[in-house]
Amino acid sequence: MITLSDAQGGALLTAAGAAIERESFATIDAEAAPHDYDPAQWSVVRRMIHASADFDFNGLTRFHPQAISAGLAALRAGSPILCDVEMIRAGLSKVRMAGFGCQAHQLIDRPELIERARAEGTTRAVQAMRQAAREGLLDGALVGIGNAPTALLEVIRLIDENGARPALIVGMPVGFVSAADSKAALMSIGTVPWIAIEGRKGGSTLVVAAINALMVLAGE
């Protein structure tokens, strides 16, 4: 017997593997400190803990009031998923995306954007977000940023200055330069829903876990 994995990008689990996953979630529920997340939010946070074995995300993870509903609506509408790096795109459940008619995109590796970043003294991540806006991949998209704070800051600038309107931003860049600041800036936005991690912690694995959790919820 095999089942669809909720955790590993659409890989197939054996019955034994599914049992291990259920036991893992039960362990997290038993060991987690009390929290104020609602059931849908907790399903996201729990999957992030499952992906990292880090219970700090129980508390560090923040949700815009409309984050869950906006994310589910975007997925069910087949909206694009815009990723800052290939690691996120590769980790998302292709089986679940196909079921919703969603496609994941990342532009950071395009040679012309690398050259543009060098010429303008910016980062590749900044140019990738600008190009995504030009190509119509930003408005209405579910945006996942786990690696590049500059990508998140650029999306925020495009929202503030150009009126860009992603459906949801999962903003979790990790690091020591601008990572915490970029997430703090995201959490100050009221016009676009977001899910974010407070402070320096984060990473592409956490974004994958959060978006895959949303896909599980959207399929229920």
UniProtKB/TrEMBL annotation:
Pathway: Cofactor biosynthesis; adenosylcobalamin biosynthesis
Pfam families to which the protein is assigned, alphabetical: CbiC
Membrane-spanning intervals of the chain: none
GO BP of this protein: cobalamin biosynthetic process
Cobalamin biosynthesis precorrin-8X methylmutase CobH/CbiC domain location: 20-216
GO molecular function: precorrin-8X methylmutase activity
Keywords in alphabetical order: Cobalamin biosynthesis, Isomerase
InterPro entries membership: Cbl_synth_CobH/CbiC, CobH/CbiC_sf
Top-level taxon: Bacteria
Family statement: Belongs to the CobH/CbiC family.
Official protein name in the record: Precorrin-8X methylmutase
Organism of derivation: Thiobaca trueperi
